[in-house]
Amino acid sequence: MHFSDLGLIEPIVRAVDAAGYSSPTPIQEQAIPVALGGQDILGCAQTGTGKTCAFALPILDQLSDGTGNGKRKKSGQGRPPRALVLCPTRELAMQIFDSFVTYGKFLPLRHTVVFGGVNQHRQVQAMRAGVDVLIATPGRLLDLINQGHIDLSAVETLVLDEADRMLDMGFIHDIRKVVKMIRADRQTLLFSATMSREIRTLADSILTDPVSIETVRESTTADAIAQRVYLVEKNNKAQILERVLKQDETGRSLVFTRTKYGADKLVKVLRRAEIRAEAIHGNKSQNQRTRAMQAFRSGRTTVLVATDIASRGIDVDEITHVFNYDMPVDAETYVHRIGRTARAGASGIAISLCDRDETGLLREVLKRTEATIEFGTDFEELTFATELQAKADRPARKNFRGKRSYRGQGSNGPKREGRVGGRDAHRGGGKPGKRSGSKPGAGAGKRKSKRSKSASAR
């Protein structure tokens, strides 16, 4: 199928062709005709499958008059936006804006983007000049609305992109405020990489008879991503990361840390090892973040270290490796992190460094994603993977470079002790050589079970 088969006008198809895209992805193939028909959409698709294009193309089509002449309800200076796209981060907002510019290059439509962390003067000037499509983060949008610079009364189409991350970041109240400012007969398109109970509750409150589009089961990882985990002592993580970056055929690599301080500290370690690295997180100014992204895209920087706040806003082609330097707090975050690689039909590698305190998090990832993850054994002096694998009570399938592979089970499937987080793996989570003083017996077993549950909860 070609984009011209989806009912899009010729200027848009021509722009898509010029951008080098020939065939729509599954989410685009399903969502674009529905959106062109004016229906609400509840869309769930993996990160990197083309959700931006899935809503940008029909919006541009609807804002034109069918011939590319630019239908406008209100002309002149100060024209209010007719389409609003909400997203969680500055980086993602900029990338969505760039997509609208690319796909709408042959249409006389105006687009602008507003987000915090920078002076608002240019954003206010752009709004005064009049826009057709507004891309915004919730906080700055409400600031400019409260100052009287933005009017949402003419918005016909509302898009919530990466809705799950916006909820994770605490934007739910801001979203509801914005929705109340938009006409009730609007078209609403909600896209998310995961579909939690909170997302469904939000969808029920703002969507009208939506068409549900789910191109992949939630909390699953892309088949094109080869996943590997090293069970490593915490103090050895940086050493393994350095070795992999130097030994493997890594191109652009993205490394995720849990904290901003951890990101900055890791960058210093990598630079001492003569690895070109930059950090991007919420404490960086917008200019610093922009420069870091530009260096990463151009290849001047080969490694970008980021926190989860930035994970939804990084859309860079040809990222070959994603590293979880710190294990993510839940399976959904894991899916989003590793979704930065293997985009647009490419393949990629995701490597996680899991210390003893993080085995419970790894168990959750395996349970929720049913991912097939290889256990790295090529740095035996730095890991404790061999010890855990020796305790597995079932044969493991050998893979390349001496790794063993286990597949996680779903919540309703049988529990395998060969998997990290099972009985033997959990026992290995304590300090080496430390034994419980309790004797075997019913009472001791119960106490041990309670301690295990408590440790997993932490």
Topology:
Blueprint: H1 10-18, H2 26-36, E1 41-44, H3 51-63, E2 83-86, H4 90-103, E3 111-114, H5 121-129, E4 133-136, H6 138-146, E5 157-160, H7 163-168, H8 172-180, E6 187-192, H9 197-206, E7 211-214, E8 225-231, H10 237-247, E9 252-256, H11 260-272, E10 277-280, H12 286-298, E11 303-306, H13 308-311, E12 319-324, H14 331-338, E13 348-354, H15 359-369, E14 372-375, H16 385-391, E15 397-398, E16 404-407, H17 423-427, H18 442-457
Compose a concise summary of this entry.
It is built from 18 helices and 16 strands.
Can you put this structure into words, describing what you see?
β15 and β16 (404-407) form a beta hairpin. This protein folds into two domains: 3-214, Rossmann fold, CATH 3.40.50.300; 225-434, P-loop containing nucleotide triphosphate hydrolases (Rossmann fold), CATH 3.40.50.300. The protein is built from 18 helices and 16 strands. It is globular and about 65 Å long. The model is unreliable at 66-76 and 385-458 (pLDDT under 50). Strands 10-11-9-12-13-8-14-16-15 form a nine-stranded mixed beta sheet, sandwiched between helices. Strands 3-4-2-5-6-1-7 form a seven-stranded parallel beta sheet, sandwiched between helices. The chain is an alpha/beta fold.
CATH fold title of the largest domain: Rossmann fold
Q: Strand arrangement, largest sheet? A: 10-11-9-12-13-8-14-16-15
Task: Give the N-terminus to C-terminus distance in angstroms.
Answer: 49 Å
The CATH C-level class name of the largest domain = Alpha Beta
Q: Detail the poorly predicted runs.
A: 66-76, 385-458
Structural class: alpha/beta
Strand content: 15-25%
